[in-house]
């Protein structure tokens, strides 16, 4: 089976970073969640973000598609700066896929409808094309036989794979993963990680908030460590795990790797 | 040492007789414990005392098609008050010879409701069918075209008026209520304030006072010579009133939708109206079907309040019938009759809502 809508003209030159965060700050009330975040992500780059809970990792990636608003600094995605302009925000959101910890599938729609909704209403594809695309991606995450079920009838791992396929149907230029495996039963983690690894091998630009260190080691180009709203350390996975520089990174790694 | 359990030992057995079948049902529902048994016996005794005289009054000693004098001589129920005045009760002052027209209109409406029961038929064609049905009903009621004599709206009355007020009242109030609920949750302060003020003001005022305002005060503000139909004004009051209540119920439904649903919709790039129409409202409105139907049912019954501004709905035509000295003693029978009509309307609404809930429960 082939993808019926394959073509993706890029709006920015290939060598430009697709995501740039420059001096980004964010507060929740008085609480300073993000402190001077600087990050640049190239096309095809895969980044894993880790850190203790409450360190601002999720907030950072949620700022990239404006589920959270940053209050200082600049965020530029695919050459569009995020401002209050809702049209620009919607345009960026269409290009940036997001996978949530709790899947957030639409429970009143079938799997196929969940997947074809975005392509039909945002991309304006004809229904038949959107459904073909949906089936193509469902097959990719090995779940095509569930197309006509409702999300409530699937296991957690299956739901998360559907959620990944739903994002892919929009032909995103970047995929954001917000702790995609942390709400899953242990035996279902692997099927979701496998789908993500497959995606990585195809060259998708990915930012993954996760504590799956095996995943980070095998697919990430860079691993970021965040604590208290700051990026404290970033390095290649090899260096990051074998030779962490920051004291807090060392402490964190010793806690999660046992 | 552990031994494997042989399969024959866990064969399915029938439940004991005392907990299944009719005997089990009786025990579980009517005679569970001394207090329950006592209650059952007490109620049986009351039924034994009350049911026979009631049946005698309503069915055995009753008069169905007699005139008023015969009724007054006997002591059973006088259903003749309904049968002798049926056409006035149902159609009010609508010209006697033309009353087949409102009758047709009511039948078409009931037919449309039955046809629309099946959610599988909810498509664009059904919309067209309804639009056509409404036009036909309008022509039948008002006339003035196709050789039908014109009947002014102040002659409309009875069940056709009640159904008209209810139909347009409920179908217009529902979308308006949804919009108000969305407005109250809007991030734009101006829209939010307007919606909050509207909802709180309307909910703080009885429907009767709104009907009075619509019929007495509102015309004072119109320029001289301009009049707006009385039915239309009452209709508007009912719509505005019901919408405020629906808004609050729908807002409750919106609050029940987890934030993740909004975020998932937004992260796909859906705009506000797509997000609401495709993701949030279908879920929220489904949750609030039971309270919404409650409001619609009470609004349906509240249409009877238009009696106080002199519209001849079902209740008013019944009252007028009873003001005739010949029938004045038989209000119980007449009111029972319209109670049955209202009950049929309300019960089919609540029945339909349960049916709809089941059908939408995916």
* CA-CA gap between termini of chain B: 49 Å
Helix content of chain B: 55-70%
Q: Report the total helices of chain B.
A: 15
Under CATH, the homologous superfamily of one domain in chain B reads: MetI-like
End-to-end C-alpha gap of chain A:
44 Å
CATH architecture of one domain in chain B: Orthogonal Bundle
Average pLDDT for all residues of chain A: 89
Total strand segments of chain B: 0
Q: In percent terms, what proportion of residues of chain A is strand?
A: 15-25%
Please tally the β strands of chain A and state the result: 10
User: How much is the radius of gyration of chain A in Å?
Assistant: 18 Å
Helix-residue proportion of chain A: 25-40%
So what's the CATH class of one domain in chain B? Answer: Mainly Alpha
Give the rounded overall mean pLDDT of chain B. Answer: 85
Shape of chain B: globular
Largest sheet, strands/sense/barrel of chain B? none
| Sheet with the most strands: spatial strand order of chain A | 6-7-8-3-9-10
Question: What's this, in brief?
Answer:
The complex is a heterodimer of chains A (258) and B (362). Chain A is built from nine helices and ten strands. By secondary structure, chain A is of the alpha/beta class.
Could you describe the 3D structure shown?
The complex is a heterodimer of chains A (258) and B (362). With 258 residues, chain A is of the alpha/beta class. Helix content of chain A is 37%, strand content 23%. The longest helix of chain A is centred in the last third of the chain and has 16 residues, at 186-201. Chain A is globular, with a radius of gyration of 18 Å. Chain B is mostly helical. Chain B has a domain at 166-218 and 225-312: MetI-like (MetI-like fold). Chain B is 70% helix and 0% strand. Chain B has helices at 21-29, 33-60, 68-73, 80-91, 100-116, 124-142, 159-184, 189-203, 207-221, 230-256, 259-267, 272-287, 289-302, 314-322, 331-360. Chain A binds chain B through residues 65, 67, 86, 90-91, 93-98, 100, 102, 104-108, 117-118, 121-122, 150, 152, 166-167, 170, and chain B through 258, 260-261, 263-271, 274, 278-279, 282-283, 286, 362.
């Amino acid at each position: 089976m082939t993808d019926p809508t394959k073509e993706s003209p890029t709006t920015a030159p290939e060598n430009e970073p697709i995501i740039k965060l420059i001096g980004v700050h964010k507060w929740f009330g008085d609480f300073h969640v993000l402190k001077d975040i600087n990050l640049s992500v190239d096309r095809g780059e895969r980044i894993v973000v880790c850190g203790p809970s409450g360190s601002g990792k999720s907030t950072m990636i949620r700022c990239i598609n404006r589920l959270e608003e940053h209050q200082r600094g600049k965020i530029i995605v695919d050459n569009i700066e995020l401002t209050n302009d809702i049209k620009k925000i919607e345009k960026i959101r269409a290009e940036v896929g997001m996978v949530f910890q709790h899947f957030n599938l639409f429970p009143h729609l079938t799997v196929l409808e969940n997947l074809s909704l975005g392509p039909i209403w945002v991309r304006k594809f004809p229904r038949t094309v959107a459904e073909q695309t949906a089936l193509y991606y469902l097959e990719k995450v090995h779940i095509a036989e569930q197309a006509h079920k409702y999300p409530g009838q699937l296991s957690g791992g299956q739901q998360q794979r559907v959620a990944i396929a739903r994002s892919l149907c929009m032909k995103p230029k970047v995929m954001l993963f917000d702790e995609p495996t942390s709400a899953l039963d242990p035996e279902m983690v692997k099927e979701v990680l496998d789908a993500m690894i497959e995606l990585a091998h195809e060259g998708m630009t990915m930012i993954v908030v996760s504590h799956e260190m095996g995943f980070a080691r095998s697919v990430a180009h860079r691993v970021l460590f965040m604590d208290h709203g700051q990026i404290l350390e970033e390095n290649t996975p090899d260096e990051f795990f074998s030779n962490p520089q920051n004291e807090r990174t060392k402490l964190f790694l010793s806690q999660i790797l046992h | 040492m552990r031994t494997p359990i042989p399969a024959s030992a866990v064969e399915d057995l029938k439940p004991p007789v005392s907990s299944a079948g009719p005997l089990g049902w009786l025990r579980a529902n009517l005679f569970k414990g001394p207090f329950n048994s006592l209650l059952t016996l007490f109620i049986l005794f009351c039924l034994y005392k009350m049911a026979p005289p009631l049946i005698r009054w309503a069915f055995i000693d009753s008069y169905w098609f007699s005139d008023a004098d015969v009724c007054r001589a006997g002591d059973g129920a006088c259903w003749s008050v309904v049968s002798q005045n049926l056409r006035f009760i149902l159609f009010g002052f609508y010209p006697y010879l033309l009353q087949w027209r409102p009758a047709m209109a009511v039948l078409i409406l009931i037919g449309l409701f039955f046809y629309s029961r099946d959610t599988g038929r909810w498509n664009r064609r059904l919309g067209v069918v309804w639009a056509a049905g409404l036009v036909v009903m309008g022509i039948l009621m008002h006339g003035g075209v196709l050789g039908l004599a014109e009947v002014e709206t102040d002659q409309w009355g009875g069940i056709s008026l009640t159904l008209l007020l209810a139909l347009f009242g409920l179908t217009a109030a529902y979308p308006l209520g949804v919009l108000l609920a969305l407005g109250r949750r809007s991030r734009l302060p101006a829209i939010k304030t307007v919606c909050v003020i509207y909802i709180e003001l309307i909910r703080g005022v009885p429907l009767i006072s709104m009907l009075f305002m619509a019929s007495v005060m509102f015309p004072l503000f119109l320029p001289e010579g301009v009049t707006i139909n009385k039915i239309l004004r009452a209709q508007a009051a009912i719509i505005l009133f019901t919408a405020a209540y629906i808004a609050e119920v729908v807002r409750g439904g919106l609050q029940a939708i987890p934030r993740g649903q909004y975020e998932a919709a937004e992260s796909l790039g859906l705009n506000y109206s797509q997000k609401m129409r495709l993701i949030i409202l279908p879920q929220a409105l489904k949750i609030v079907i039971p309270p919404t139907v409650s409001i619609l049912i009470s609004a349906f019954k509240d249409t009877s309040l238009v009696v106080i501004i002199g519209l001849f709905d079902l209740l008013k035509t019944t009252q007028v019938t009873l003001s005739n000295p010949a029938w004045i003693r038989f209000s119980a029978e007449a009111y029972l009759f319209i109670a049955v009509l209202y009950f049929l309307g309300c019960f089919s609404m609540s029945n339909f809502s349960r049916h709809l809930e089941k059908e939408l429960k995916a």
